[in-house]
Amino acid sequence: MRRRTAIIAAGLIMLAGCGSPTAPEAAPSTVVRLGLARGADRPLPTEVHLPPGRGRHPLVVFVHGYTCHVSEYADLIAHWVVAGFAVAAPTFPYTNGAAARLDVMDLLNQPQDVTAVLDALLADNAKQGGPLYGRLDPDRIAAGGHSLGGMTTVGALGKWRDPRLKAGIVLAGSARDVGAAFRGDPAAMLFIHGAGDRVVTIDQGLAAYDAVPWPKAFLTLPAGTHRNPFMSPADPDFARVAESTTDFLRWRLHGDSDARKRLAALGSDFNDRLG
To answer: Where is the signal peptide (predicted)?
Structure first.
């Protein structure tokens, strides 16, 4: 039986740094803010973005990059929410842009933080009267992340495997330091990487992709850099990232055959081994 990580609910390598937090655009969603923690020294405040209406939604746990802020990914998160996915975005204690003490190697603790956040969200989902009661589908869960968050995602599907994860999205990430010991039931994975990434090189991303034993795909952004394709709608690659990740989630968590066809039509930059 999987060992569950205790979590406390407290109420409602160097990588390139990110910018200061910016106010996100308004999205047609409800945002539930939970003051979670995995022990006294690991606060994990989490934003849960819920699509409009009632009913259970597939869940994506999104992991920010090193020295980044959740708000910098507001547009990508909004794209997934509009498509009907609930998105939980924790702020990790020693890798976020406002951390009093930064520690890039705290990466090795973050896959277990993902499990702890999932434990808390699903407990609230089952608790009558809780803010998430009946809103999440515990059988349709994915994880994704950018840069250090992509590495965290690799770890959550590898050495620190959470068996509840049915899919993973790795944006400009690699298996550096977390290893590529993928294990457990197959979880389809989508990697997206810019050929012009000078921080985590595309070769590092491809090495992680090559190690995945399950259905997988790798989308190369020929002019893509490390940050902007995943954060800035003004970047020419952002729409491609938003649309391909959304179709991947639709296919994997909804069984949407039309989304699968759109992925297959992405062209020569898309190495498709999704099956």
So the answer is: 1-26
pLDDT confidence band for 54 (50 / 70 / 90) = confident
What region does 124 belong to: left with phi over 0, alpha with psi -120 to 50, or beta? alpha
As a whole number of angstroms, the distance between CA 206 and CA 66 comes to 20
Q: Which CATH architecture describes the domain 8-16+23-273?
A: 3-Layer(aba) Sandwich (3.40)
Mean pLDDT for the chain?
92
Mean pLDDT on 156-171: 98
pLDDT in tens, 87-103: 999 999 999 999 999 99
Give the separation between CA 183 and CA 255, rounded to whole angstroms.
23
DSSP character for 147? T
Cβ distance 104 to 148 under 8 Å? Answer: yes
Only one residue has tokens 């992680």, namely 208
